[in-house]
Amino acid sequence: MRFRALLVAFLALCLGVLTACSDAPSAVVNRNELTYDEILNTGLANKCPQISEFTRGTLPVERGQSYVVTDLCLEPQEYFVKEEPANKREAAVFVPGKLLTRDTTSLEQITATLSVGNDGVLTFKEEEGIDFQPITVQLPGGERVPFFFTIKGFTGKTEAGFTSLNSSTDFEGGFKVPSYRGAGFLDPKGRGVTTGYDNAVALPASADSQDFERANVKATELGKGTMSLQITKVDGSTGEFAGVFESVQPSDTDLGAKDAVDVKVRGTFYGRLEASA
Question: Can you tell me the distance from the alpha carbon of 96 to that of 83, in angstroms, rounded to the nearest whole number?
Answer without folding.
Answer: 10
